[in-house]
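Our consortium's second objective concerns turning raw sequence data into structural hypotheses that experimental partners can test. To show how far this objective has progressed, the report includes one record in full. It was chosen at random from the queue rather than selected for favorable results. The single chain below, 376 residues long, was entered without modification.
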Amino acid sequence: MSSLSFQKLLLPLQFPSFFILWCCAILIIFQQSSISSSSSSALVLPKNETIPALLVFGDSIVDPGNNNYITTIVKCNFLPYGKDLGTGDLPTGRFSNGLVPSDLIAARFGVKQLLPPYLDPNLKLEDLLTGVSFASGGAGYDPLTASLVSVIPLSGQLDMFREYIKKIKEGVGESKAATIVSNSIYIVCIGSDDIANTYSQYGIRRSQYDISSYTDFMASQAFSFLTELYGLGARRIGVFNLPVLGCVPSQRTIEGGLQRGCSDFENQAAVLFNSKLSSQIDTINKNSPDARLVYLDCYTALLEMIQHPAQYGFEVTEKGCCGTGNFEVSILCNPYTMEICSNDSSYIFWDSYHPTEKAYSTLASLVLEPKIHEFF
């Protein structure tokens, strides 16, 4: 197979999590002093609240390495991924050059600097008590999305959460465990793979749904998941909407024509789903007075960064740092890639989909900080 054919074959697997051939799994425990300086200090929370733990569900954007411990091709535990994390020579399975949103949000809530994957066999009780990520790169609201690449679906992530609750009950008792569960912050970040891969690139769902009915299906799955999460005791739940999918480098390459413009179809699909997700969140909040579900709009924030990069300290918006930046992701962004940009902090994207640590940090500030009061 020619190099060009191989690249074309991999393009449908690029978005946001379907990217990898195997590499051995490594997770290193970093001391706080080794964490990148872009992990900002904790915010001052309303009413002088303290958060016991951060618990995260989702896809590759917030997977710190759970996929290292399952049998799937969706992994990124090899260099240059993680080159700016800790000592820079032991990638953890985070889809970026450094920290990912789960880490940055944990730091902003004053919980800890790195949020570990739940499947890490080396976790101790004290690690569990301050939170973990259950996210699995390649998952979606649509159960088929995870099934296609053998990763952990949202139903499986909820099963792990149930197991988590059992473990902390055994460790600290029913009463304290209940307090941790009810007072923790929960983050949900998922759905991009449904639109970009399962529907748009693979076309698997197109025979069953037009885009309006498919986003209805996604929204109903989101509602079911959030309702079940609430039923397990979660109350403070931040839910990220879909980003501006059509403007990431891989989708520009696949759908953007010779000029690599943004893909209108995927942007419009994201907007359509986001409106339905927002309505579902409103419904749950109205029907459950003690629920604090917070809609987190990363679509608008990322679009603003792409349209006005200099305002946020960026220079490059249409390609990633790794290689040409047009299609490299996962195995095509590897230790033998011919070129890695010399200043990844000037790039919004690290590879052809995933943002850089600096971009994630900027997004966390733009999206999360104005909404902090809504969690309390």
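The partners drew two points from this record. Confidence is low (pLDDT under 50) at residues 1-39. The two ends are 56 Å apart (CA to CA). Both points have been shared with the crystallography group to help prioritize constructs.
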